[in-house]
């Protein structure tokens, strides 16, 4: 891991350092950053309210850790971890996310963000300033059902973020959480067709909803109705994750 010159903390306000935007840290993962040893920083808050969301404590909870806590942890992991995953909640809704990532990059880590795509202006800055090395973009649903599933009117922002990533050199993945009561096989087929019509070419990761876990909404049992071979195309490889 290449060590870069550290950004002077004197240029960053005390308010920035004391901003408790983080709920918790997962100190080690081999699953969340492709082919890398990483940690996960879980940001509080989200501008969507997906009923199947597994992280109600993070979405509705208050931050417990400030940026200085996180950076001190990361300094202790230099040479032990390759990357940092910024997840949540939604990391891009926090106004200090860019200087925070600058500090992470200055320590020599690569950075992945998990995002719902609702802040394309922030995403564009992260891409243009080469502050992220990988992105996972959540594809919640098509526009007709987007408000019902996310309790938001942010489909246009998601679409803009998708196009930004497609036109960038940043490696990224598109992913969907599938609950059978929310997305039918026919709707999922239309989702793959939507990606293909935008000329998306690559892997499309799908994870089935995990039953019997705490979620934001009160959902019934989800059936596993789909198989990847019925939806993959010449451009899009649908991959079901366990």
In terms of topology, how is this protein built?
Blueprint: H1 14-17, E1 22-29, E2 38-43, H2 56-60, H3 67-75, E3 83-88, H4 97-106, E4 110-115, H5 120-128, E5 134-138, H6 143-150, H7 155-166, E6 172-178, H8 185-197, E7 202-208, E8 236-241
Parallel strand pairs: 2-3, 3-4, 4-5, 5-6, 6-7, 7-8
Antiparallel strand pairs: 1-2
Structure description:
The longest helix is centred in the last third of the chain and has 13 residues. This protein has eight helices and eight strands; from the N terminus they run H-E-E-H-H-E-H-E-H-E-H-H-E-H-E-E. The protein is globular, with a radius of gyration of 18 Å. The N terminus is likely disordered. Strand 1 and strand 2 form a beta hairpin. An eight-stranded mixed β-sheet has the order 1-2-3-4-5-6-7-8. With 242 residues, it is an alpha/beta fold.
| Average pLDDT reading | 92
> Care to count the β-strands?
8
Described by the principal axes of the CA atoms, the overall outline is globular
Spans of at least 5 consecutive residues whose pLDDT stays below 50 are: 1-11
In angstroms, what is the radius of gyration? 18 Å
Question: How many H/I helices?
Answer: 8
Structural class based on helices, strands and sheet pairing: alpha/beta
Termini gap: 30 Å
Task: Give the % helix.
Answer: 25-40%
How large a portion of the residues is in β-strands, by DSSP E?
15-25%
The spatial strand order of the largest sheet comes to 1-2-3-4-5-6-7-8
* Topology pattern, helix = H, strand = E: HEEHHEHEHEHHEHEE
Q: What about the largest sheet?
A: 8 strands, mixed
């Amino acid at each position: 891991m290449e060590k870069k010159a550290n950004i002077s903390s004197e240029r960053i306000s005390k308010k920035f350092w004391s901003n408790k935007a983080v709920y918790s840290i997962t100190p080690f993962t081999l699953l969340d950053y492709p082919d890398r040893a990483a940690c996960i920083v879980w940001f509080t808050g989200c501008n969507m309210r997906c009923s199947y969301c597994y992280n109600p404590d993070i979405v509705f909870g208050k931050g417990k850790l400030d940026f200085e806590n996180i950076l001190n942890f990361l300094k202790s992991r230099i040479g032990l971890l390759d990357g940092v995953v910024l997840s949540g909640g939604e990391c891009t809704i926090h106004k200090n996310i860019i200087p925070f990532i600058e500090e992470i990059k200055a320590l020599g880590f690569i950075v992945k963000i998990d995002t719902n795509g609702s802040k394309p202006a922030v995403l564009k800055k992260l891409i243009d300033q080469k502050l992220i090395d990988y992105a996972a973009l959540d594809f919640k649903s098509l526009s007709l059902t987007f408000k019902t599933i996310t309790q938001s009117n942010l489909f246009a922002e998601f679409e803009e973020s998708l196009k930004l990533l497609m036109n960038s050199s940043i490696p990224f993945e598109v992913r969907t959480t599938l609950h059978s009561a929310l997305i039918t096989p026919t709707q999922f087929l239309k989702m793959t067709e939507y990606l293909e019509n935008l000329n998306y070419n690559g892997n499309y990761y799908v994870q089935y909803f995990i039953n019997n876990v705490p979620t934001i909404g009160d959902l019934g049992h989800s059936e596993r109705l789909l198989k990847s071979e019925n939806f993959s195309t010449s451009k899009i490889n649908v991959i079901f994750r366990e």
